[in-house]
Amino acid sequence: MTIIKAALLGYGTVGQGVYTALKTHRQQLKKLLGAEVEIAGVLIKDPNKKRDIDPDILITTEFEDILNIPGLQVIFEAIVGEEPGFTYLNRAIEKGIQVITANKVMFARYGKVLLQKGQKYGVSVGYEATTAGGVPIIRTLKQLLQVNKINRIQGIVNGTSNFILTEMRSRGISFDEALQLAQRNGYAEEDPTSDISGKDAFCKTMILSELAFGKQPIWSDVELEGITSITEEQVQQALQLNLRYKHVADIYQENGTIKASVKPILVGESHPLFSVDGVDNAITVEASLLGRFTLTGPGAGKLPTASAMVEDLADIFTVKKRELQPSI
Amino acid sequence: MTIIKAALLGYGTVGQGVYTALKTHRQQLKKLLGAEVEIAGVLIKDPNKKRDIDPDILITTEFEDILNIPGLQVIFEAIVGEEPGFTYLNRAIEKGIQVITANKVMFARYGKVLLQKGQKYGVSVGYEATTAGGVPIIRTLKQLLQVNKINRIQGIVNGTSNFILTEMRSRGISFDEALQLAQRNGYAEEDPTSDISGKDAFCKTMILSELAFGKQPIWSDVELEGITSITEEQVQQALQLNLRYKHVADIYQENGTIKASVKPILVGESHPLFSVDGVDNAITVEASLLGRFTLTGPGAGKLPTASAMVEDLADIFTVKKRELQPSI
């Protein structure tokens, strides 16, 4: 049986999810790829933390150790922040290693560079997990773009904000109370800034823009607003009118320029994002032929995000497998 | 420039949509496939009908004429009913011609046979357009199945029924009035039986079952009910309780047996199909890793369905193009 040697960069929620998914879905992958996916190494930050990793897997704090794994074919990157993720993936690509990332902050900034570099080195760069967790928006857009032109994208791409707005509405509680509830439920980080300020949604919006329109707006031109200033009273007043606050990323092209905003808006019942509640993400795409359709699903979470990364793996290696077979 | 020679079987709404889509998206396809898609022939039923087809395209009532087009590479089938669609596609596959179908009645019955035959002859069989029009559920499921197991599928897969139920609720009108409204808007056929009896949804359900679970339930075991017996009063009573009637296809596996039903059910606000209104279709999938997600979009219509068929074309020929290139 052929072996596909893989390494994980980072062993937080997402890294652990990939580890679990590869284990629990081993048979499925074997059947699909005709190969066994073996996790050969895991890059970690704190060597003293206890982790439930098989003893024969290399655990290291040094990226060099990962790069030096003989025959390493694919890296799953689940680190947070632009660096060192970008540098690591650059080096991996230069070595001909396939890369799959969940790192939206890094990818919003450097996605294009990595994709171009990947092309140069004949390496695939999977990034489904960067945007809307388990919702398969990246591959759906890629597929659509084969034939359709994309006119507009509107999306709820931050589950934490959506959960908070949902709870404020349905329970009649304040922003602070809803945030605490999100934290108690594990839907918000201890430091929730990136989610509630809209920065997380901003990164995903830039990634979607790059894919759908081939470019991003100038970042400072994007109207960016989080949900922190929305009051209990506003939410209840809106509710009286059957309107709901949703934190929505909006991207479209006007005279060749990309217009984008990431901010709370009021939507009525006929809006496709009206009923998207809780930690769900949803993305509405307006396409030239297909019309308007919406994808809704888990925007985050260990297994949904891992599923996205493992699907990237499946894509990359089924294509490689197909290329090695005689053509029909 | 290489030419991909194509033929259309049937020139109703869907056939015309494909014709239009191939024309309007010619540049996009050229860029993608490195080839020009040329419609070389159209199979029609009534030779006396006036049609807006380029004069240099072969128009014929004889399938033999289509089969004999020199170098024909792909057939788009948009005929209604099991036959002659099945026989035609069989013969096309035997000649090594790629086939793409929108014919759900035929594909529900013979999909497996055609796919197996296609495999034997090295021919692809595209069937995205058979189910939920422009909603890309077939390719999304295929993609998911690479890694996930599907636990359950629930869907609104008939736009006509959904439109009627929506209008009954929102306007407080009777079934008959809503049906007439649907007919006036072009959302229901003159003979609406297949839509309102649930038969159309049944076919799509069988296609989804085959794909998701590798088999279909015994047809006579499926609980099948249309929307004709739902009264104005029932709809309004439900509305008082904030419940809505939705015509829902439901498929899951229990002890290795497929359980399926296609019938009106009452859903509450937390159900993912609660807000799917009008002619939209929506499909909720519960997958082992990904969790629960929903695809919503235009369930029918000329261009959405055509988009699905042209995407099938793009898939088939990009894979072929890739196979002809040196592997990376």
Any overview of this molecule?
Two copies of one chain form a homodimer. The first copy, chain A, is α/β, with parallel strands linked by helices and 328 residues long. Chain A has two domains: 2-133 and 303-324, NAD(P)-binding Rossmann-like Domain (Rossmann fold); 137-299, Dihydrodipicolinate Reductase, domain 2 (2-Layer Sandwich). Helix content of chain A is 41%, strand content 23%. Chain A is built from twelve helices and twelve strands. The first copy, chain A, has helices at residues 13-24, 26-33, 63-67, 85-94, 104-121, 137-145, 159-171, 175-184, 193-196, 199-213, 232-240, 302-324; strands spanning 2-9, 35-43, 58-60, 74-77, 98-101, 125-126, 150-156, 223-224, 244-254, 257-267, 280-287, 291-298. In chain A, the strands form two sheets. A six-stranded parallel beta sheet of chain A has the order 3-2-1-4-5-6, sandwiched between helices. A six-stranded mixed beta sheet of chain A has the order 8-10-9-7-11-12. In chain A, α4 (85-94) links the parallel β4 and β5. The longest helix of chain A has 23 residues, at 302-324. The two termini of chain A are 24 Å apart. The mean pLDDT of chain A is 94. β12 of chain A pairs antiparallel with β12 (291-298) of chain B.
